[in-house]
Amino acid sequence: MRDIVVLIFLIVCLFAAMRVPWHGVLALAIFSYLNPHSYAWGFAQTLPAFMILFCIVALRTVFTKDKQSLPKDWRIPLFICLYIYFIFTTTQATVPYLAWPKLIDTAKIYIPYMFTVILINTKEKLYYLIITIAASIGVIASKGGIFAALHGFSYRVYGPRGTQFYDNNQFALAVLINIPLLILWYTQTSNKKIKMGLMAAIPLSFITSLSSWSRGALLAMAVLLLILLWNSKRKFLVFPLMLVGAVAATKMLPEEWFGRMNTIETHKTDASAMGRIRTWTDGWNFTLDHPLTGSGFEGWHWVTEREWHSAYVEMFAEHGFIAFAMWLSLIIGTLFSLTKLAKQMKGIKGMEWVENYCFLLRASLITYMVGGLFLGLSYWDLLYHLIFIAVLIKKFALEEMAEKLGNKHNTGYLNSTDRLNNKIRQNN
Q: Where in the chain are the domains?
């Protein structure tokens, strides 16, 4: 029965993508994060659902008129250059029989983002993309939170099979990254039933992250809570809620959970922590000897004894310092871009949505950066979704500003919008 339901859902998504191409972008997000066919028991589990959707979206993108040209944003050419550099490092890989398949798998992750920035050509479509991602991860997180609460946090919660975040540690971080997206959805919707559902999904997401028993996720959660509290306009309401939640969690969590979390302070006596430090040291030393190429994809098999367990080490150890600089520039540059855009739009009537989007997207990115210190997530599709959503936020904000002045052609880079800001403020 599950297989039939999954097959029907896939067929609906395929028809939606064929009929309206940008719906295909939403469907790709669903199958990336929710991965519904992993819940089947029979033939539906082996269906190449994502690839079928990918081919249809690619074909419809070519022929549809409802699209835009690639935004003139520095992140797009840098993103393309990064993948080209991956091809170069793969030709020099230490474990080529593993590196080449990983290069192809990475292309399957990277290429769909070109469809995203071409087909998501309005602010409304961007909103639907964000809530699709939020709902896809939020449904699994809510399910995991209910399971954890009913079983006293005694079992670890895992993500959907076949996704990049099936592992309990990675799933915990994905759930935390998704929380600001759920909050964004809550602030933007006027549907009371959806608001009630989100009010349940957000605390359940925190519960799911705690029940992963992930030490890295606990640190990422602490940072996320501080960011949300610092930027909240209702600190006197939010802080007591956080405090009550923390107290409730300490009462519900088992002693074994606290014993595992305490190893953060005693990492020198923890075999797992010391193993990660040895791996990071091996990766750093190898990159010093091979600064331009690194080891190539999956190079840890040659360089050290275990996976990298850090997105940062993974990137420079596998592709060298040039690729690492490009990759880190995409992340940090996006943080600066979101911050600058929010400041430029502050106080402009009708542009309040920009500040809200920028703040919450920035919170997700910072959460990724903290969690990525301890998990190898360099090629995570969720990271690049956030980056390209930031690209689209900037594009639509600039276009909306230009329309306020009746100047649809003045939609250039951020540093060319200062005069627009001043004029709009004067008009308001």
A: 1-67, 75-119+272-428, 126-265
